Batch of 2 targets.
Target 1
Amino acid sequence: VSAPLPPVRVEKALALLPELEALAPLRALLVATSRPDERSLWSSSGPYLTLGKRGVQPDELRRRMPQAFHTIAEHLQALYRAFVEALESQQRGDAGAVVAALLRAGRLEEGAGRVTQAGAWYQVALDVAGALQDRRPEVESLDSLGRMALALGHHADAARHFQRALALAEAEFDQAGAIAACEGLGDAARWQGQWAGAHAWYARALRLAEASADHRAIGRLERQLGILARQQGDLAAAGEHLRRAREHLESADAPQELARVLNAQGQLEAELGRRAPASAAYREALAWVQRAPRDPALELSVRINLAQLDLDAGRFLEADEELRRAEQVAIAGSLTHRLAQIYTLMGRLRGAQGDETGFVFFEQAIELCKTLERSAATEAQVYLEYGLFRERLGQREEARAYLERARTIFDSLGEAVERDRADAELRKVSA
Amino acid sequence: VRPQLSLHGSPPPSPSRKKEDGQLRLLVVTGQEGGTGGVVQSVRQWAADAGLEIETASDLPRAVRELAAKRWDVVLAVLGERADEDLSWWVDALRGAAGSPRLVAAAQAPSMGLVLRAEKLGVLDVLSLPLRRDDVLQALRRVRASATEVPVRLATVEHHAVGTYALVGQSPAMLEVYKLLARVAPSSATVLVSGESGTGKEVVARAIHQSGTNAAGPFVAVNCAAIPENLLESELFGHEKGAFTGAITRKIGRFEQAGNGTLFLDEIADMSLALQAKILRAVQEREIERVGGSETIPVDVRLIAATNRDLQVAIAQGRFREDLYYRLAVVTIRLPRLAERGDDLVLLVAYFARQFAERHGKQVHAISDRALELLRLHSWVGNVRELRNVIERAVIVATDETLRVEHLPDEFRGEETALADRPEGALLTLAELEARHMARILAHTNGQIGAAAEILGIHRNTLTRKMKEYGL
């Protein structure tokens, strides 16, 4: 038997794939199919394994292609069906149903991770809804556009959509629409570091939710207020909000939301320096994730926090294992956009161990930001941590260069909190 | 010399996983699916008959709270419709739980794939629903059996320190390595160290440097496989500021950093042919150029290269330059696999256990006979590096002076399950044996079917068909 050909590395495979939208599913399949080369698992390069160094067997890719075609066909069928339904509704003169069908198509796109494409559907829905007498479809369209803008980091645009949605919802006595709009405005303000504004919007949404006895919404908003309080350093208030969030969500039987609350509880406990309760909260969050409908993004978020907890406690072996599990969840769940965050943490871990070769994780994270993820905010975060890594190794000139780059990107994105953090680190390096 | 492993002077037996009265603590988790109420009722009755202490949790979050609050010996978990996922979740959830409870999974009509996966993950047993009294009691007997481990005192190991590393071993294969190392170190000859992953190539390279004429100079190691290909050249040769996007400052490369010392190029076979040509030039002419620079810089370094690949095959496949191979392999040292080193394994266990106990502030003086037996039986694909990781993890999770089976990774606990005495009626069929072997090889190749088929000596289509047949 002749020696089998070694797998092709992902970094080389991706380099052969042109940047065409039609090939995005193939790109995702390629990543999901990749495996660590068996020979490298225990080699000295094993601990530095990143997506680019994983291997792809062309044969395996070929075998899994029908499955991918099936998924693509299903997605397109669902989109086409939604469009035909919109068309039929148009024919019947039911513009409200037209908007509903278009919004459904947008959500399908969002579910497939195609946020920009989702935005196009939402925009058409908004155009149709604008001509209706009933303003609720317009409120819903604006809410969807606002959520999408938030996901893309366009906070000012998001705030604009939510403001308009709130005005319309109040005029229509649409309580649910008003709650969603206020929460969206709170999110937009929080991302821009406008703590007081964020608090005011969340509190207003909470009052509305309490008035309509919507336990799920109350729980969600209490969690948001808890997170906000923690970010502002008011840990006692944060604990109280999270306790109330849990109470409401337990009665609402909302496993996903409960997982989110426990995830936030874990972060709070970690900030209080209480490692064991933090770990217990994250573990319970993972149990709720397992009980809820599949949500790899949420699982990933908890696992990353768990890894960070181990990392901060100097438990490097555990942190590394948890990060590798998170990496596997991200790759299997086609959440490549979270890989940059995972590799940044792996780089931080090596930095804490004084391991210079850890720079490979930051380089891979930057590469991912430029190719697969295309998120300037994440790229800036990577540069910030890369700068701190270089500083820890005594490479001050390089540290300064990376921190300056991070600061410039944060500034251009309007992310004041992170820009100020980059500034503070720059001052430390320059001192 | 056979390593000293004496039962004399053993520390007192370590606390058993059982309570003093021999009562096991069992947590039964039924999950969300309906129709499991009978499970609790039946197990409660059997547990009472067998003198077990039992509590129940009706869903996963409650179970997690129970696990955090108390110490359990066994968890009997009813898997849901996504049995595979549930199984992985449970293994993960029990990792690090107080008392390292063993998992017994129960599922509706478990597939052979699920059973084999469970075995690999160290699950004590997979039972079919509805549960049968004998199956449950048999599983619990295995927990009791694993509690009877005898501590064996760890020997004090003589070793040759190499910086923060050490050469440990007295096997004939290692003695050959030491002799060659002693002969080659005082010269300035380029050395190629070959051997499987984890056999200690870098430690040998450091030992050569430490015993060589340039020991006062730096030892600079570069892992050629770890560094992205587009960055490796600048890492090795350095770059001038602005040479390419990202070259924000001038960088001194590893060749220059290793001046008057040793440059260790690990996993050299992973280098591109273009870069191999540049290395060849550096080795031949003893000078380099930084990326984006025009100045020629003389370098005086001893080069040691290492590989876990067969470079002759790589040359035949056109992946490695033959001229570079002959330049590097002036002297070749081949390191043995751990499996070829016989009782060195025991010495290494003792050495690592003491080293990590000191590092993590633990008191570890013994290893149980069963744990040691499992270590001896393991296939050690990752050689000494894998052993080192296993011992470090065991030391971290150990709660007393003895490393026991429960402190070993999941797959070892699976091997223990496979080793356990089976009643006569449970002898394996040929198909079960074949499925087990295939699962083992697939695990070894990390699921790569082509490589697994090659090891098994069958066509990949045959393997794919059988994998489907056995639900692997």
Target 2
Amino acid sequence: VRNTTLAAVLLALLTFPAAAGAQEDEERTPCAATLTVGECFRYEIGEFATDEEVEKVDEETTKATTGAQTASEAVSTAVRDFLPRVGAALILPGVDEDRTGLALRLNRYLGPLSAQIGLDLNKPALYAPLVDSIPESIRAASKERLEGDLEDQDDVTFTLALNLEAWGFGRNLGQYRTEVSDLVTELVEVPDSLTQRLFAELSTTVLLRADAARLRERQSEPECARNLRVDELPLSCFRATFADSLREVLRNTAIPYQEIARIRTRGLRAPAFAALAQLLNNQRQLNGSIKYRHRDDLVGANELTFNGRLEFGGYSLHSLRKDCGGTLTASCLVSTMTEARIRRLSEGGRWWLSADGTWRDEHELALTTDSVAIQEPETFELKLQGGYGRYFGSLREEGTRRPRIDVEVGYVLQREDDVRVRNDRATATLSYTHPFSSTSAGVFGVRWASEPEFLGDVDRNISATLGLTYKLVKDDEK
Amino acid sequence: MSVEHRLVIWSGVPSGSTFHLRVTRGDYAVTASVSMQTATSGPTIFELGPAELVDQEFTAPIETGTVLKVELRLTYIFPKETTGTVNARVTQADGSEFQNAFTCDYTGALGSDSPEDRVLIVAAGGEPGGGA
């Protein structure tokens, strides 16, 4: 058996050059007359795929984009991007949230800030504790009567959200677009001689003759119709001799075009170029929002909430521009983005600070006919938080499917009628996420709180959790 | 890494027609190399950028014997997926469109599998003495 195997291997090695030659011959097969000129060109540069192959790719793409992107991203807490929410609201005004009511959003630039102004008409519903307080014997009748008193404007929310997009803050490329565009152009520059060769191979003589070479007798057929461009026509719509000339031109043009593609792709794959994406992603973020909810006494108390968040992502495009003396250039990018700096970028570290406040107005209501009264004091809660998150491992080899760690500390203050309540507490959370595959990840978390009752375990100050996340849909392997 | 290539050709464009090319504004670098050849002069090669293709429409007259070749590139410069639209068409002297216009949406992102898209466009007038 061993001798037979050895003989087969030797035979394969001996015949390999011939097989490779046959493969080359196969690659040189002229494109079929049924292909359009455009398809033939793509065939020559090795890009044209059959319908079956396209269907397969479409199917895989659909599968890959369904659901959350990766298991580990789902627990990423340090990255928050304000812009897509604005974008989504722009595209789908009023239907960006799954809710009962009507939401309107308006996006505007206010100087260096991008702003979103919102108005939500929530469907008014009776305040639940109020309904629960009504004696059971008359509850149904009272509820029906009170609901009849509610108006559309009895529960309205006004929102203003702001995101700073200047002075090195924000991921809006607008402030760097021209510079980055020039820089990219410089990085992927192709020699003039190659461009000249590309244009020379695209034979002027053949192009000038293409229209005259169309078969007049076939122009009544839809696939050879007069209104179609040359690239939309199958080669069979041309005189046979001309179709051969066209094939040759397309084949010759594909050679320098492929070389151009190779040079540009090499530039696009350069580590410094790849770092551009991360540099932009690392821009500092400062955003905030204020929300006022006006409610009728039957619906609930008026409420004012605000949120502010500051995020630092390490070395950014802004830092690079500063290091480059105020102007981004390709040479500065390449010399500044050393291997060590690129490695640090791949950690994707983020520091963040946030403040969330909620002020609720006092709520007093007496309904004598229903024998019920509500008296709730004014309350205020302020939550101050800070955190840090980062990935471990190589971005190039593993992408976002890497272990990551997140640390979060916070303090919550609560007041009732300006008096401190016992609920004030400090909390800290440490979580470690370890992806096992593209579909599953393990999460280990440790939580500490200064008031142990908030941990759900009255005997200890620290609680630990261990979890497993699993995605049913497999990501596209990268 | 997949880069999409397209070839677009108008041939037999009537004399006095105009070629139009425009790219929508977006988070990508727009560059183009152009070769313009007329019946009386050899090819002149020049470069175009966003100022000529995005801020305004690039136009070129097409006469008998004219061959205009454009190699257009959209290189994505933003990490989030961006879509850009390339619109090319040829209008005749009376303003009507000559054959089908070319409109295509291209999507890609910096650092992604689709960092660049390319379109090779040709607008050729009739052959001198060919009667087209």
